[in-house]
Amino acid sequence: MGSEDVKVVSFWVSPFGKRVEWALKLKGIEYEYIEEDIFNKSNLLLRLNPVHKKVPVLVHHHKPIVESFIILEYIDETWKQYPLLPHHPHQRALARFWATSVEQKLGKAGWVAMATSGDEQERAVKEATEIMEKIEDEIKGKEFFGGKNVGYLDIALGWIAHLIPVWEEVGSIQILDPSKFPAITSWMTNFLSHPVIQDTLPPRDKMLVYYHNRKNNWPSAFRNSVKD
Amino acid sequence: MAKNDLKLLGGWFSPFALRVQIALNLKGVEYEVIEETLNPKSDLLLKSNPVHKKIPVLLHADKAICESAIIVEYIDEVWSNAPSILPQNAYDRANARFWVAYTDEKWFTSLKSVLVADDDEAKKPHYEQAEEVLERLEEVLSKGSEGKAFFGGDRIGFIDIGFGSFLSWMRVIEEMNGRKLLDETKHPSLVKWAETFAADPAVNGLLPETDKLIEFAKVLKLKLAAK
């Protein structure tokens, strides 16, 4: 089968870009990967995503689609094999709800927990743990959020499995206590050992270096108030 | 007994709840509205949306659906025989979702930030963002809809609902600050669209009156400032 002219523009460590790659690989869609240096944005990116100037971008038949959750829906609607979203409208609504809600709440809390210290960090860890409790309830008794197979919500939340542990190490914090979150811990193992997922993870040692740098350059009220 | 077993936990002041009503009206579906005052939040709301504790929530039989854009997509999928709210092809659907997400991220925050800001200096960046939003949407409407009345074409679609639901709040910000946002010279297509949208049978009568909403906005401003 020839190339369908599918390109993915992303940044190697971006969890948003990984979602797009996972979705395409699960559906067996070949694509060209184009690495973008997000700290030195190319004219290509600015042309493909003039509004947000962000990765990832999916380019299909020369047309750009942006925003990772929107890209996932596009992929699922365009290539019908290996459906990612559930079939029933209510299940679809729930999957979309959890994807965006966790992104909104845990994405911010987790980053702050990694990048800050003191009270600010403590509050963020607490917030992140609270969201984990809700996720634990959702995954209990299931191998994947999608049931027997990796689905939309697994892809949407997959960053928890490979990124949160890195953030924990960089921030010297714990959010994912296995004794508190046995179902999530089990899901993480299932997810990370899936062949498609395994093959696309960014190297952990590189991730640690990257996020240590991000943390060191992160502005915070605490840091700004400390004068050398 | 709820019509169609459909209940909307909403509020007359909420642009997000308005989206759900417009969508249901477009589908010609009957439903019951439960007005939430949010002060305090009802047990039903807290039980139906424990994660965010926000309106709107659509209760359909024993199911609760939250987040306005997600609810509208749900409505479009369940009542699939009625005219579609989202476009048919995947690329256009992605485009529609993009502009609705953009509206939530940039338009809603601009309006809210102008409301909360104390002086002109503080309002300036938010007005700049608001102007950028209007410029972009003017372009989307005038170029994308091929001269048709709505973002969605001949009928109200996802972007119309997403952006149109904020019309009353936009008027409130305009009046409270004595400064126009929507401008006939800069945004001729949007100005025309706003009239057509408000007059559409699915929307008519649902947009809150500006005076009533201004009073509400003044109280909200104080509440937000106190936080």
Structural class of chain B: alpha+beta
Instruction: Trace the largest sheet of chain A across and list its strands.
Output: 2-1-3-4
Helix segment tally of chain A: 10
Q: Which overall shape of chain B is indicated by the principal axes computed on the Cα atoms?
A: globular
Helix count of chain B equals: 9
Please count the beta strands of chain B (DSSP E, at least 2 residues each): 4
How large, in whole angstroms, is the Cα Rg of chain B? 17 Å
Biggest chain pair contact, residues each? Answer: A-B, 21 and 22 residues
Termini gap of chain A: 61 Å
Q: Level of helix content of chain B?
A: 55-70%
Largest sheet of chain A: 4 strands, mixed
Radius of gyration of chain A: 18 Å
By secondary-structure content and strand pairing, the structural class of chain A works out as: alpha+beta
What topology, given as strand order, has the largest sheet of chain B? 2-1-3-4
**What sequence of helices (H) and strands (E) makes up the elements of chain A?**
EHEHEEHHHHHHHH
Residue runs with pLDDT of under 50 for 5 or more positions of chain A: 221-228
Number of strands of chain A: 4
Largest sheet of chain B: 4 strands, mixed
Family (chain A): Belongs to the GST superfamily.
GO biological process, one term (chain A): glutathione metabolic process
GO molecular function (chain A): glutathione transferase activity
InterPro entries (chain A): Glutathione-S-Trfase_C-like, Glutathione-S-Trfase_C_sf, Glutathione_S-Trfase, Glutathione_S-Trfase_N, GST_C, GST_C_Tau, Omega/Tau-like, Thioredoxin-like_sf
